Amino acid sequence: MSTTQQSPTAAGSGASATEAFRASKERRGGANVDPERVSAVVAAILQGVHSAIREHNVTYPEFQAAKAWLMEVGETGEWPLFMDVFIEHVVEEVTSEQQQGTKGTIEGPYYLPDQARLESTCQLPRRDDEKGTPLVLEGQVRDIDGTPLAGAEVDIWHADDDGYYSGFAPQVPEGNLRGVVVTDNDGRFAIGTIQPAPYQIPTDGPTGKLIEAAGWHPWRPAHLHIMVRAEGHRTITTQLYFAGGEWLDSDVAEAVKPELVLEPQDDGSGTRRATYDFELEPA
Ligand code: DHB
Ligand code: FE
What we know:
With 283 residues, the protein is of the alpha/beta class. Helices cover 29% and strands 22% of the residues. It has a single domain (10-31, 78-280), classed as Aromatic compound dioxygenase (Protocatechuate 3,4-Dioxygenase, subunit A), CATH 2.60.130.10.
């Protein structure tokens, strides 16, 4: 694993994640704001907070420290980071209960739409001197009945060999290690890229400070983010992990599922190859 010394600041990636989230409002649509639902869910959240206070005899200084911390999360733009690390996995869990096909997992804060469209066999955009072990992800997109889906979009984004995402770290060029790969007539794709490194939540912001104060660790295992779209089918948002990788059993974002772990094999030339097929249910 290669981690980094040259950390982009939490404030930098937090603010970019906030901006990206605001820009995604149109893509996501609005939420149901039925007052009964608001009341039921918010009352349950407050009850959870109240019972934690009673159970642990939370003091006034602790209450004021919590207020100061919440203010800082807002001021540094870290709410998308915090929500996606600590809460999104449960929303994904309840959403996917009734869904068939490939397992989904969290989207996280670093998706950017409208990336380069690439042919089914392709290389992701990368720097001339991009570091990292070459990796090829190949497979097929199918309907749950087994029909290959031609022209499906495999929208992929991942961190570099230092664990940084383009668009959220100043030293990585825009569009790096991102692309929308279109499957061939047989629904197949073969994507050349590099092995991503584990991802570390920025430790210099309030989310990182909380993790440190609690004695937790800030790591996610190395992963590829993938959104698979095909006309007439439900879009899948998922991630693929790497067998034997660090933090696989203790992901801070709790987003690993056993069905999503790749087992890449060295092809003898130093390139790691992994196969994964996606199955989409009708919309
Ligand atoms: C976060 C980062 C990720 O790369 C991810 O997949 C999920 C969450 C985060 O910093 O919040
Ligand atoms: Fe990620």
